[in-house]
Each structure stands twice: as C-alpha cells, then as structure tokens.
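<goal> How does this chain fold?
<body> The protein record starts here
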Amino acid sequence: MVRSIVFALSLLTLAGCAPDTAETDAPAGTEAIDPTGSWTIEAIGDRPVIDKSPTAITFTTDGTVAGNAGCNQFTGGFELTGTRLSMGPLAVTQRMCAVEALMEQEGRFLKALENVDGVSMDNGMLVLTDAAGETLVRASRQPE
C-alpha cells in the first residue's frame, strides 16, 4: 500500500514537471518568427556580401517586402505562417551594376529570395532557408 502511494505521488510530481502541451500549438522548433523591420544582408549562401554593398531587405506589417538587391530595388509580397515564409512575385528594377561582381552577387541574392521557404533567428541574425533547411541568406537587423 505504501509503495502504491509513493508511486502515485511520484507520477503526480513528474506530471507537474511536464510541459503543458495545450499551451502551445506549434511543434518544437516551429515557433513563429517576426521578421518585421529592416535587415542588412551579411551573407548569401556561404559567401559574405561585398563590403559596403547596399544589399538589404525590409519586411512590413502589411505583408510587403522590399529592399535593395545591390544595384536594383525590389518589392513584392510575403506570407509568413510560423516559420514558413514565401515571397513573391518580386518586381525588380532593371539597372546595370557598375561592378560585375556586384551584379553577380545581386543575381545570387534574387535567386535565393525566389527559393525562400523558411525563416529563423540565430543569435540575433535573420536566417532565410530553402525547403531543405539550407541557409540561403543571413541578415543583421538595421538600427532603428
């Protein structure tokens, strides 16, 4: 009898330590991310952006995304559900870059944006990923 009471008390104690699954609807690792604001692009894939490149992106509360791809401006819409992010279609101006390396970087950046499927935060950095979870873009928040 004493063992049954001790066992029952142990189970109640453990149950009190368990997280309340009713409070969270999202599976682990899928907490909602709020990318609202302006971000400076630090890396595209595994390559850092060219120093002093104006490459940046801004997410607004009304579902608009806009920014500077390096030489050209872009704008469009985005949808965010938890950590799933999709953008587009994006309208992009058609200016030539003065430097070929910047034009190549801009092409990689715009291609990355077409393939974005997810968003997360990593030590204060915004991370945009593809459907396989591969990092496409890393960005730091611009001062307000």
User: Anything to note?
Assistant: The chain is about 20% helix and 40% strand.
